[in-house]
């Protein structure tokens, strides 16, 4: 249960604090937390959020899906060194950490010939011949 939380906290820390310091923040400068909330319920569900005076904000809520699986949803935002606003939404569950954000690279489009072949294959599934005897030789 707490492994997912610790993993998300580590990913968030790397994402936010692994970045170079924006030019407006000086070493040793104190950035105030202007809003912070946290709640842990007896059933294992939780939520937390915070916001700092320099525009960093994060929030997450999570709950047990079953005795062995936790699911969390959340988001965080900050401003990159070049002034670009970064916003990430994520889900973390048995399928892993699944972030989404406009700044993430996207794959190139599928070439038209490959797309046509995929569409043809989907429209004409191969018949299952496993029950027929195979010829040898």
UniProtKB/TrEMBL annotation:
Residues annotated as signal peptide: 1-18
Alphabetically ordered keywords of this record: Cuticle, Signal
Pfam families linked: Chitin_bind_4
Gene Ontology cellular-component terms listed: chitin-based extracellular matrix
Tagged with keyword Lipid biosynthesis: no
InterPro entries attached to this UniProt entry: CHIT_BIND_RR_consensus, Cuticle_Struct_Prot, Insect_cuticle
Domain of life: Eukaryota
KW Signal (keyword) present: yes
GO molecular function: structural constituent of chitin-based larval cuticle
PROSITE patterns in the cross-refs: CHIT_BIND_RR_1, CHIT_BIND_RR_2
Protein name per the record: Endocuticle structural glycoprotein SgAbd-8-like
Species assigned in the record: Sitophilus oryzae (Rice weevil)
